[in-house]
Fold this sequence. Notes:
Shape: globular
Largest sheet: none
Number of domains: 1
Structural class: mainly alpha
Amino acid sequence: xxxxxxxxxxxxxxxxxxxxxxxxxxxxxxxxxxxxxxxxxxxxxxxxxxxxxxxxxxxxxxxxxxxxxxxxxxxxxxxxxxxxxxxxxxxxxxxxxxxxxxxxxxxxxxxxxxxxxxxxxxxxxxxxxxxxxxxxxxxxxxxxxxxxxxxxxxxxxxxxxxxxxxxxxxxxxxxxxxxxxxxxxxxxxxxxxxxxxxxxxxxxxxxxxxxxxxxxxxxxxxxxxxxxxxxxxxxxxxxxxxxxxxxxxxxxxxxxxxxxxxxxxxxxxxxxxxxxxxxxxxxxxxxxxxxxxxxxxxxxxxxxxxxxxxxxxxxxxxxx
Length: 320
């Protein structure tokens, strides 16, 4: 690892510290009282509410609360949820497998479809196939996932009654029948996210193929008499996918933190749905933990993208 990457690694630490301060300060000063649910309960007196506030540390100055929070977070203790009184880490790890299954499968599907479709679209530029495909990609990228999800629900759940529109979080895969049910309830959320991801990546693959296909090294490969398939596979595709790989690396944090809107549309009990519910309930510890984890993943995978780019493309050197 050269000096530039070491410098990036060292600068990521104060970056994360600054992000943690911003996240904690904004959420601590945000409107909404976690004790609000007790305000309308006549059986809970003001003294009891104050004792609860004190037990949660809400009576302390904000800088002391920040130091305690970040110290506990580094040690692996994310605190306790204000609403469920459960450890935040337990809530996140309960939702993580579902998020990885749904969102991870969608991103994998998008990457698998985007590369061949992008290559074919670029090689058949301005043809009827390219026009139709780019039009569909434009619509797929432009339409929000909540709209596409609602269309899927209306068609495949309401009209055709093929697929369940609510994700059953209590389903346990123990036999072939339950496995089929798991696949059926996952098809729509995975398809919605996968189609959006395909549209996003295919645009980059197509543009990179078009940029590389007319370069000198490609003309030289054709002049040597290499078949078209070999030229595309070994020369054009290899160089065109370098920016796409780094783009995927930068997108990986979203796999861990979930798809906020899509999870709510299909009632998928993932981390994204947990974040939205926690925001609505002013459950600050959960919101802070998920947001900061997302920030950590972004910083880490930005560094990973830099490393991948330098490894995949020998022309790139970091000399600063």
